[in-house]
Amino acid sequence: MNCTDQQTVCYLGLGGNLGHPMALFDEVVENFRLHPLAAGVKESPRYRSAPVDATGPDYVNSVLEVYWLGNAEELLQACLGLEAQLGRVRTTRNAPRPIDVDVLLVGIQTVNTESLTVPHPRMHLRRFVLEPLLKLNPTAQIPGKGFAEGFLPATQDQIVTAI
Predict the structure, then answer these.
(1) Catalytic residue set
(2) Where would you find the membrane-spanning parts of this chain (predicted)?
(3) Cα gap 66→7, rounded to integer Å
């Protein structure tokens, strides 16, 4: 299992624009609440946003704060397993999808492996990530970049609407 004795506050980005993303978000939250390596879960408000660098229906987005007892790779595997369980089939980058569960932050760690990059490399460029993240943690920091709030002005042209 490779658990640590301490919890790490992690942030996950949820997104989806096919089928019933709101119901899938509920399932993701519930799955993390029941996960043996998760000691607590909190979800931000949900937002609607237009696709970035793609076409298709608007997305529903939110951020989860998860108190995680495992390591970053175990968190990634939990996310990928949930996506598959809930019908995600990976095709092309930015393709429409029913659910996406991205690892955004793992405490103050930086991770750069073949399967995982933390902090998420584009999170500071996406208002649909920054808005919900800052609702959960107004002083959130992106390791190596600074306070998340400082990136909001550059995303003013991206419209996100609370739902």
Answers:
(1) 88, 97, 100, 102
(2) none
(3) 9
Could you give the CA distance from residue 103 to residue 159 in angstroms, rounded to a whole number?
A: 23
Model confidence, pTM: 0.93
Helix (H, G, I), strand (E, B) or coil at 34: helix
Tally of CB atoms within 10 A around 147: 13
Domain ranges of the chain: 8-162
Rounded to the nearest 10°, the torsion over CA 11, 138, 149, 93 is: 20
What confidence tens digit (pLDDT) does each residue in 84-100 have? 899 877 776 666 788 99
- Nearest CA among 108, 132, 121 for reference residue 49: 132
Given a contact cutoff of 8 angstroms between Cβ atoms, the answer to whether 118 and 125 are in contact is no
CA-nearest of 7, 52, 35, 42 to 132 is 42
Q: What's the CATH superfamily of 8-162?
A: 7,8-Dihydro-6-hydroxymethylpterin-pyrophosphokinase HPPK (3.30.70.560)
Measured in residues, the chain has a length of 163
Phi and psi at residue 43, to the nearest 5°:
-110, 145
Residue 125: how many CB atoms within 10 A of its CB?
14
Looking up tokens 């993701």 gives: 28
